[in-house]
Write a structure and sequence with these properties.
This protein has about 100 residues and is mostly helical. The chain is built from three helices and two strands. A hairpin with a 5-residue loop joins β1 and β2. It starts with about 40 loop residues before the first strand and ends with a helix.
């Protein structure tokens, strides 16, 4: 990558308990979606499962809004919208950047 500001510098692990005070929806994140994309997954004992990908999407969306508010360049999923050349998840996992 040509700009040191775009280099992934560290991972952060977040642990804790997530308590839902209202119903939750697992969807695609696309605007205009009226129905859930997935039903609620359940543990064998009946407890609901929230996929990590849902949390990742929520954190990413928040980080993009925060960076926009702070006047920073965000690596949006659609690089045409952000004007920033992004490293795809697949490329990042392979370490080929």
């Amino acid at each position: 990558m040509d700009n040191n500001n775009n280099i992934f510098k560290r991972k952060v692990r977040i642990t804790g308990n997530l308590v839902f005070e209202t119903a939750f929806h697992i969807g695609s994140g696309k605007e205009g979606e009226l129905a859930a994309d997935m039903g609620v997954l359940l543990e064998p004992d009946g407890r609901p499962i929230l996929p990590g990908s849902s949390l990742k999407g929520n954190f990413r969306s928040f980080a993009e809004r925060l960076s926009d508010y702070l006047g920073l360049k965000a690596c949006l999923l659609d690089s045409d919208l952000s004007g920033v050349k992004c490293v795809s998840d697949e490329t990042y996992r392979k370490g080929v950047y």
